[in-house]
Amino acid sequence: MLEKEQIGCAQAKPKRGKAAGATAAAKARATRTATRKPEASARHEGDLQQRIQQRAYQLWESEGRPEGREHAHWQQAQRELTAQLAS
């Protein structure tokens, strides 16, 4: 008896029609979106880091290129750019 149930489940016909196609299309979109997100977020993160670096350099130059203030300039640039993104 158990064998007949297993065979019956294995031979079940797949759904057809609009609902089945819509589900497959939704899964395909979700897969494409899921695979793009890390790339986009990594790219965004890289762009943000580059902008922070450029701004920190500007701050360093505007203060006469002092030694030992890299961390302070980086933090200030990071705060400024984060505030710009938030507004």
* Tally of helical runs: 3
The assigned structural class equals mainly alpha
| Sheet with most strands | none
- Termini separation: 67 Å
Top keywords for this entry?
87 residues, mainly alpha
Question: Would you write up a description of this structure?
Answer:
With 87 residues, the chain is mainly alpha-helical. The chain has one domain. 82% of the residues lie in helices and 0% in strands. The chain has three helices and no strands. It has helices spanning 2-10, 18-62, 70-86. Helix 2 crosses helix 3 (70-86). It is rod-shaped. The termini are far apart. The mean pLDDT is 77.
Please give a quick description of this structure.
The chain is built from three helices and no strands. By secondary structure, it is mostly helical.
Write the layout of secondary structure elements.
Elements: H1 2-10, H2 18-62, H3 70-86
Helix pairs in contact: 2-3
